[in-house]
Each structure stands twice: as C-alpha cells, then as structure tokens.
C-alpha cells in the first residue's frame, strides 16, 4: 500500500541436497518507493562455485484508500446551475493531496450529488436533499458619481457599471442601458441600467444626469446676480482638477496665490492662461514675518507680484491679506499695522478684497456636503457674493461642482475679480 513501510522479504538460499544444504550469502538489489504508486522489481543475487543465481520479485505499490469529501455548512437553497450559498466543498486524498478541483456534481430530483475520484480511481460520493431555487435579483453597482452634472452640449462619458448575480456571477455583459439624455437641453435626465439573470430575476437602477447652462460671463459686463469664487493659498496638488471643473462650465475664478512652493509654477501659469484672475496673497504666508512691519509686508507682496509677472506676464494689483484685513493675529507683531497697510495699498494703487461668504474649509469642516451647504445658504441676490475657499483642500474641489450647479440653475453668473470689481472689506481690528 502507498505510504506503508516496505521490508524486503528474506529467502533461504543453499546449495546441496535436502539433507546437506549449505547456506549461501546473497545480495538484494532494487528499491521500492512506497510514497509513489507503481511497479517495482527487487532482485536477489548470489555467486557460488562459479555459478550465478538470480531471483526477481515484482512489488506493486497501490492506493486503495478513497479520498475525503468534506462539506462545510448547511444546504438551504441551491442555484439551478449548482452553485450553493454558504456551503464550502473540498476534497483531499492521502496520495494526491488537495483534489478540490476534481470534484464533480450534478443536480437531479431535488438532490445535489457530489463525487470525487483520485488518480488511482478510488471514488467518494455524497448526496444531499436540497431546494432548487433562485429568487434573488442581481445587483448593479454604478461607478462614478450619481448624479452627474453636465454643462450644456458637454459630451457624456459613461463611468461604467458592474452587475453581479448570486447564482450567475458576473453578468455585466447582460446589462441593457437606455437613456433619455439630451445634452442640448437643460434639465434632469436618467440613464437606466437593466439586467436579468438566467432565472428571470430582473433589476433596474438609474443614474441621474443634470444638464445645466454654461456660465455666461463676459468681461466688462455687470450682473445683478453674481458669485465670485476665490481660492487662497495655492496653487497646489488639487488645483489642476479644479481648473478642469471650472473649464467645463466656463466659470472664471480668482486665485490669491502664494509663492513659496515652486512645484506648481506651471499650474500658476495655467490658471492665468485659462482666463482666471491671479491675485496676490503672500509669497511666504509667514504671519510673523509679514506683519512685523510695513516694509516686511511690502517686500513680501512685491516678491509674489514679481513671481506672478514672471510666469504670466501680468502685473497683478489685486490683493488679499493673509487672515483678511480684519485679522487680529497681527497685533502680536505690530499694533495698528493693518490700518497702515490698508491705507498704504490704496495709495499705491492696489485693491484688496476680503470675503462675505465662508465655505468653512479653513478648519471648520472637511466634509464637501457641509462646504456646499455653507456656500449655497449664504448666496443672496443684489450682493457681491465673495466666497472664501482654498484650492489646496481636496474636499473643497470635491464640493465645487455642486456649488456651480446651484449658482447656474438659480440664474447667477460666476465672475473673476477685476480692478473694476466693487471691493469687499472687513472692519479693521488692528
């Protein structure tokens, strides 16, 4: 038997008569590997008085032990194709090892019959009474957003979907997609995804598509319902994604930039090339440095102004103070400096802009839903809606499309700050 201990059989070898037979020494040649099924030969050889004696013995190593078939779990329902839920089936053999992949099954008369055979033909069979049933509908998973916003005439790109059935597995190829989408008209549309499994169970899911108008901003024009999206502290790793979103809706914004991170100089140039306003925030954004004296502030301001001009060719005179003109942190470094700086900038021909809508992305929240709510709840008609945001925050970029959607569907125009834009100022506190 396979995996047993084999000991060579001893023989009596002698020369002579029945009564006077002299024992002769012999040698055994050949090896039997009991770990491997097969036929082996063992030879007994001896030499005596010039004569050679040889006896050959055939040894067969066989496997007669049936494999183990293990069923884990309780049978409830079995799919018509034989797939079972919450049941694991495995098989192992003393010689072949794991032979789970050799398991065969068939369904007959509300029975499921499992059978497995090893390489020696030993077979194990088990059968169970089952209920053949499939009454669960498939699941459809949509990739991407739902809803999806499209600017008017913007081509729709399907983000994809997956359909999974408990019995049939992946049936994505069976999904039927229909839609009433018309990108030429503003409105709400739906893309329908429908799939039916092999047992006739059907599921349908919808993706909402909202087509909104593009921004109608024209330079030099005034608007009663206007929103200024302003972004501080960039450019950064999320700015390009933001630019792509703004571009889709023809929305122009204002970027109050910093200058200490040279990794995004090409993004600074891109902001300007796409028609956005580049405002001056601070080169260093170091409160202790810039608010320690008027000269230090102006040196920092001129430094960021020079950098902007170097990468855009444009000399900006639109400013936003770090912390806003109402900041009180500057008191620690130079009492009264904000009053001096605001007057000084006016004398030098600069315009500075604070804000009247807080998005909350400066530390209050990291939730895009809260940012959207903060902004949209504060937008009002006949008001310079000056929104403070930060393009260095990923959750702000995630919120921006819904803010644009709100503005455009409610008749607002998104505009960049220009030298003609009415200034929004806070009360000076230092």
Can you put this structure into words, describing what you see?
Helix content is 19%, strand content 33%. By secondary structure, it is of the alpha/beta class. This is Polysaccharide deacetylase family protein. InterPro entries: Cry22Aa_Ig-like, Glyco_hydro/deAcase_b/a-brl, Ig-like_fold, NODB_dom, Polysacc_deacetylase_ArnD.
Task: Furnish the topology, listing elements before pairings.
Layout: E1 14-16, E2 21-23, E3 27-29, E4 38-48, E5 51-61, E6 68-72, E7 77-78, E8 88-93, E9 97-98, E10 104-108, E11 111-117, E12 123-129, E13 131-132, E14 139-142, E15 148-151, E16 161-165, E17 169-170, E18 176-179, E19 187-196, E20 202-212, E21 226-232, H1 239-248, E22 254-258, H2 265-273, E23 277-282, H3 287-290, H4 294-312, E24 318-319, H5 337-347, E25 351-352, E26 357-358, H6 368-378, E27 384-390, H7 394-409, E28 413-414
Summed up, what is this model?
This protein has 7 helices and 28 strands.
Keywords, please?
single chain; 430 residues; alpha/beta; Immunoglobulin-like; six-stranded parallel β-sheet; 7 helices; 28 strands; 19% helix
Tell me the CATH superfamily of the largest domain: Glycoside hydrolase/deacetylase
Under the CATH scheme, which architecture of the largest domain would be assigned? Answer: Alpha-Beta Barrel
- The global form is elongated
- What CATH calls the topology of the largest domain is TIM Barrel
Tally the helices.
7
Strand content: 25-35%
Protein name: Polysaccharide deacetylase family protein
Pfam family, one: Polysacc_deac_1
Organism: Candidatus Aphodocola excrementigallinarum
GO molecular function: hydrolase activity, acting on carbon-nitrogen (but not peptide) bonds
